[in-house]
């Protein structure tokens, strides 16, 4: 009946209205944030499971909004993708991450490989190969110290074009990794085609390792399969010693997660590099 519907409709309207308003505000403020330097990168170490050494780090973008406080990339990256702002944002992340990795290398803190997340939009809607080549030239970072993390979604729209560009990036000497591996639905055929050197096991599988036999099996299978294909495997979302022990025992090459360290601002990451690791 009409009466019964009213509250649901009213609820729908106001929450949708608020969500829409917030998205609009985020979209208009993000442009400003990029220009005003309100974005920042945090770095999460990637740790070699056998030795405990830090071999690289994933750069993760952070936005401290002057009025709204910290906004999660889970919220603003999709908005940036839909509005096209992901192009200038992504270029900034790439340049800043490469600049920082080169600075740490030059300071003698180690030849660490920096991993940058790249949206499918960045791959498809601009001269991404030119941008990566120019960034390497501008920052002086050796290509093998850059890794680009992409999801399988990159092949969903214009597969041929995407594949050409991924190959061209690989030919620059840059490493490519498939992020969130196992959550897409064409993982296996993509594995054969994509010019990648690394798989990242999605954190949803790692989280269930100890409680869920299926997640343990899946992780084991992904590690074995990656190695059969000659690929390196990274497990993300390692939160406990038990996770780390399990994955090390299964031969996982690298690990990343709160057990080792949360994403850190650059000074904290430098302190971590300078001191013996606590794990
Ligand atoms: P992602 O690429 O899968 O990044 C991993 C996310 O897991 C990060 O969240 C990281 O902080 C979080 N994480 C790491 N270790 C643990 C752990 O042990 N436990 C748990 N529960 N979480 C852990 P974050 O920084 O909020 O980023 C979320 C997503 O936003 C990223 O997922 C990525 O898809 C996107 N993103 C972040 N920075 C960028 C960027 O610069 N460019 C693009 N295109 N996307 C980005
Ligand atoms: Ca990632
Ligand atoms: Ca991931
Ligand atoms: Ca993810």
UniProtKB/TrEMBL annotation:
GO terms for molecular function: cyclic-guanylate-specific phosphodiesterase activity. Keywords: Membrane, Transmembrane, Transmembrane helix. It comes from the Bacteria. Residues 23-277 form the EAL domain. GO terms for cellular component: membrane. GO terms for biological process: signal transduction. This is Diguanylate cyclase (GGDEF) domain-containing protein. It comes from Insolitispirillum peregrinum.
């Amino acid at each position: 009946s009409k009466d019964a519907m009213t509250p649901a409709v009213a609820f729908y309207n106001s929450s949708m209205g608020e969500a829409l308003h917030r998205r609009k505000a985020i979209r208009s403020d993000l442009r400003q944030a990029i220009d005003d330097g309100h974005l920042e990168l945090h770095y999460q170490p990637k740790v070699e499971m056998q030795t405990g050494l830090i071999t690289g780090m994933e750069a993760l973008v952070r936005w401290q909004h002057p009025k709204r406080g910290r906004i999660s990339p889970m919220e603003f990256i999709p908005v940036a993708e839909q509005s096209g702002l992901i192009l200038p944002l992504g270029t900034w992340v790439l340049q800043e991450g490469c600049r920082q990795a080169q600075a740490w290398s030059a300071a003698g803190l180690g030849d660490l490989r920096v991993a940058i997340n790249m949206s499918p939009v960045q791959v498809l809607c601009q001269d991404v190969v030119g941008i990566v080549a120019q960034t390497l030239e501008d920052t002086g970072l050796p290509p093998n110290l850059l890794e680009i993390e992409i999801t399988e979604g990159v092949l969903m729209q214009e597969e041929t074009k995407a594949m050409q560009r991924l190959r061209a990036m690989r030919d620059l000497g840059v490493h490519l990794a498939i992020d969130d591996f196992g959550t897409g639905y064409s993982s296996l055929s993509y594995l054969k085609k994509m010019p990648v050197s690394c798989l990242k096991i999605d954190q949803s599988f790692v989280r269930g390792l100890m409680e869920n036999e299926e997640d343990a099996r899946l992780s084991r299978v992904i590690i074995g399969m990656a190695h059969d294909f000659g690929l390196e495997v990274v497990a993300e979302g390692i939160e406990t010693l038990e996770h780390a022990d399990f994955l090390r025992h299964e031969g996982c090459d690298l690990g990343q997660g709160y057990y080792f360290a949360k994403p850190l601002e650059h000074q904290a990451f430098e302190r971590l590099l300078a001191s013996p690791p606590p794990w």
